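Z., the sequence and structure:
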Amino acid sequence: MSFMTYLGKRVMRMVLSLTAVSMITFTLLQLAPGNFADIQRISAGAAQFGGSGTEDMVHAFASRYGDDIPAWRQYLIFMKGAVTWDFGPSYKYPTQDVQDIIAQGFPISATIALIAVALSLLIAIPIGVYAAVRQNSPADHGTMFLITLGTALPNYLTGVILVLFFTLTLGVLPSSGWAGPHYMIMPVLALVLGPTAVLARYVRSSMLETLREEYVVAALAKGGPRSTVIMRHALRNSLIPIVTVLGPLLASLMTGTVFVEALFRIPGLGLYFAQAAASRDMPLLMGTALFFALILMTMNLIVDLVYGYLDPRIRAAGGVSRWRRSQKSPLRQPA
């Protein structure tokens, strides 16, 4: 399979996947109770008429927010604009187009995600190497326990714990907002724990496999300093598989900060997504959902293209994930 054929198939798969995501998201939005017009009508009625909306109000709000046309036509109208990256104005923020909200909020989410991944790497690599070179020791078992705990603890719960400790107990960090670097500390820490645990496990597993390679065993048998062999030879080759994890991990952090941003009231794309879901803001919810899916698929595509370009076996297998499955055996499972 040529590189261009491989690339074309992956892009076509992305288009089909994005279409499926749009259809599923729109269907779930239609099945959810209430819509934006109902919410606004009830709010206006409660404020102006003591909760008693008139029939004219019902029709006025339905017409304003497109609820008076069939659902299938709403979907087609939205997708027609989405093809040209024009999602239209948000219902909740009528003076802003959805694509402008994405351009405004995504850099904030991306900044938090990049810092979290960088910090995770700085912590995970030493922990993974330390656990690998002391396999089956109390230190290794203790490290694996902490890794499992970090994997199981959701980031929003970590965020709540951080707020209780640093804001309510010590009073040293703000609990919400986005007005300076110190506002990043708790959101980043809330996001770091999970990726650190995942990366540390990958580093440990890869290091254990590399330490069993013949060239490492030979270097140690010749009397080479253990620390030199580990740092110059084993570690360098052990980090190569981590590249396949970093892409999807970074994408998942960029698109998975919904709860953290809502908790800390950070004006990132995750907060807009949460508000759109709560208010049934169809253009904003659909636009952010498609953008999140696009980011995830693009990062996976980049990883597959890099590895596919370097190794034709991956192109033939249809991607890194499929190639990994074809290469799996009991001896290659993570320790």
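Residues 14 and 297 are 7 Å apart (CA to CA). Confidence is low (pLDDT under 50) at residues 46-54, 329-335.

Let me know what you think.
H.
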